[in-house]
Amino acid sequence: MPPVIGGTGASPGVASGMSRPFLPGAALRVAQREALWAVSKAVESGRPVVRYGDDATGRWLPDDPAVLTALVENVLGEVLRYDEAHDSQLLVSARTWMERDRRTDTAAAALHIHPNTLAYRLRRFGTLTHRDLTSTGALAEVWLAIQAAGALGLTD
């Protein structure tokens, strides 16, 4: 690990993210997006340093922002518009539920809501996405779309 990054790992409460290496003179937009994604994963996981691509999910996402945007729009577009229009938390609720291995009680506690409220939000999320979250295929597609939204900076 480079000494600069190794040093940040020793600082309590500091999270850092690293992009993949890039060539001198290359556009920095992709590297910046990768580093932002990695630092958000560091914050979520409590790890001091995360490198882009260290997790298995990130490896399945394409680098092309247009492809990521199309995935997000196709799967999550209606939810994003609903959350915006109603100041609701459907996407955050679904993401939190998935991050906690679909454990409703644990996710509801993390969201500071009643499990019945989370169950309602998940049903509403499924209706808006036209995806049954009990289906493995739909769950995988939604998870990748949520990761793509994060990579694009569309989620908290």
Question: Quick summary of this structure?
Answer:
The chain is mainly alpha-helical and 156 residues long. 63% of the residues lie in helices and 4% in strands.
Could you say how many structural domains there are in total?
2
Task: Please state the second-level CATH architecture of the largest domain.
Answer: Orthogonal Bundle
Adjacency order of strands in the biggest sheet: 1-2
How many β-strand stretches? 2
Helical segment tally?
8
Taking pLDDT < 50 over at least 5 consecutive residues as the criterion, the unreliable ranges are none
Radius of gyration: 17 Å
How would you characterize the overall build of this protein?
By secondary structure, the chain is mainly alpha-helical. It contains 8 helices and 2 strands. A two-stranded parallel sheet has the order 1-2. The chain is globular.
Write the layout of secondary structure elements.
Layout: H1 3-9, E1 16-18, H2 29-45, E2 49-51, H3 56-59, H4 65-86, H5 90-99, H6 104-111, H7 115-129, H8 136-151
Parallel strand pairs: 1-2
Pick out its properties.
mainly alpha, Arc Repressor Mutant, subunit A, 2 domains, two-stranded parallel sheet, globular
